[in-house]
Amino acid sequence: MEFTNVLPGVKLVKQDEAGNEEELFVSQNDHVIVKTLNGREIKGIFMQIEFARYLEEDDIVHVHKDNGENEGIPFDTIDDIIKG
User: ω before 74 within 30° of 0 (cis)?
Assistant: First the structure.
């Protein structure tokens, strides 16, 4: 999954096993569902993406969860993001 910062949100380019690409634009305050590689689903409001300066594994998607807590989800643990 490729993330491109496009204020006030982000453009995601997702690719399936067959190589088909899908573009998704997520703006701040959109409701999203983040699916992680270990099977978790995190539902909440998209806040921002924090791009690390040097290490890709430090890039993080920030979500305000439905239970009122905030969570930062590292890129390398994300399987999919959908609008919810």
Answer: no
pLDDT at 55 (0 to 100): 59
Could you tell me the two tokens for 75? 């890129």
What confidence tens digit (pLDDT) does each residue in 42-84 have? 999 998 887 776 655 578 888 999 899 999 998 889 899 999 8
- Report which of 18, 22, 31 is spatially closest to residue 1, judged by C-alpha positions: 22
Compute the distance between CA of residue 72 and CA of residue 64 in angstroms, rounded to an integer: 9
Rounded to the nearest 10 degrees, how much is the dihedral formed by the CA atoms of 47, 52, 53, 55? -160
